Amino acid sequence: MAYFEKYETPADLLRDDSLSRDRKIRMLEQWRDDKKDYMRATDEGMEGVDRSELLSQIKLALVKLQDDPLV
Questions:
Q1: pLDDT tens digit sequence for 35-45
Q2: 3-state DSSP call for residue 46?
Q3: Closest Cα to residue 41, out of 53, 50, 30, 32?
Q4: Would the pLDDT of 69 be above 80?
């Protein structure tokens, strides 16, 4: 998980000029998938903090990258 402990929010990842657009998309997609898995596990009774707000931020960041190739 390349984003783990490096980026606090998806916006932090978007601001990282050292990453290509494609790399940002791949990282956000992985982050999104990890959060979906976490939320599914939480729904199944595993304890943890609900991170649905973070998942929404990740999805918005992906839309921004896909809509604006200059990001």
A1: 888 777 766 55
A2: coil
A3: 50
A4: no
